Amino acid sequence: IHPAAAPELPPGRGRPARPIPSAPPRRAATALAAPLQMDSLIVLNVSGIQFQTWLDTLERYPDTLLGSSERDFFYHPETQQYFFDRDPDIFRHILNFYRTGKLHYPRQECISAYDEELAFFGIIPEIIGDCCYEEYKDRRRENAERLQDDADQDNVPETDSVFRRLTNLKWQFFPVLNFEQHSTIYEPENLLIH
Ligand SMILES: [Zn+2]
């Protein structure tokens, strides 16, 4: 089992005074559900999309944002929800990690966006499962190389980049110049006048 350690979470406000009910009767909700049981089921609102889970599911990973009292910063008493202004598509995979203990990399997601969400929730990418880790590493390396290429291009000498900009300008205006040449030189009226 990998530890989901987030080395640098900001200090929290401390745990809520309310005691956490021990061993709630899971997934046995009825109309007569006791308040204690209701308390253990929490709503995470991620940019308007609501996710429900059990408190003890999140607390399996106490070193992460959701598993620690850090999440209280995001609690809104009026709605009794935790609100996160984050990407709900990626969050689905993050929440699945708490449920299953396995973190997957959704191929369709941008690697940078995915990394950002993981960092926000205090989850280290090293715990990504074997099924996805190679893909994740490859995508990350490709992205790093692409960023490096861009940085190299930005570092060309100033005269080069000015020249390139002028060249681009020439191509932007070329159609216009070409049109003017046609209208002044090749029109029969102009030919007659000259
Ligand atoms: Zn996977």
Automatic annotation (TrEMBL):
It is found in: Membrane. GO terms for molecular function: A-type (transient outward) potassium channel activity; voltage-gated monoatomic ion channel activity involved in regulation of postsynaptic membrane potential. Residues 40-139 form the BTB domain. Keywords: Ion channel, Ion transport, Membrane, Transmembrane, Transmembrane helix, Transport. GO terms for biological process: action potential; protein homooligomerization. Its main location: membrane. One of its GO terms (cellular component) is dendritic spine. Residues 1-14 have a biased composition (Low complexity). InterPro entries: BTB/POZ_dom, K_chnl_volt-dep_Kv3, SKP1/BTB/POZ_sf, T1-type_BTB, VG_K_chnl. This is BTB domain-containing protein.
